[in-house]
Predict the 3D structure of the following.
Amino acid sequence: MLKRLCVATASIFICLVYITSAASDGSVTQQCLSCICEAISGCNVTSGCSGNVCGAFRLSWGYWADAGKPTLEDDDPEKAEAFKNCALDANCASTAVQGYVNRFSQDCNGDGKVDCDDFALLHIVGGYGCVGATLPDAHGKRYKQCKEILGKV
Ligand SMILES: *[C@@H]1O[C@H](CO)[C@@H](O)[C@H](O)[C@H]1NC(C)=O
């Protein structure tokens, strides 16, 4: 389920797509998923595929495979369309993010805790290069705004 949440403050007006039924067995909260989605694409759920990435989370095939190839119910992970079908579905894509982040979970920014700041880096920079990395400007700005609005991520 997706819910749109718009907030106006003195400095910004922003709409968040709040993801309300993410996989519940992972460490990534729904607020965190929402902010990762916001950071990477403005959470554009109608963005389709461009280049080799698909959906609001901009998943690549390799990311999806690293995440354990989650699929829509009744889909077969070995089918050619399975990746795209999942990446374009907010729930399935959220499950993929959970899977990827759980797999690569680490303290990317070296602040002594593993939290959404690390998960955002894992998602955007990648599991192999997140240590010491920072979010690219545009992504970092959207992530920070989202975090301010949602409070706890
Ligand atoms: C979402 O992405 C599509 C395809 O790139 C684009 O046409 C549309 O304007 C985007 N929507 C928003 C709200 O940015």
Observations:
- The CA atoms of residues 28 and 64 lie 16 Å apart.
- Residues 42, 44, 46-48 surround 2-acetamido-2-deoxy-beta-D-glucopyranose (CB under 6 Å).
- The chain has a mean pLDDT of 88.
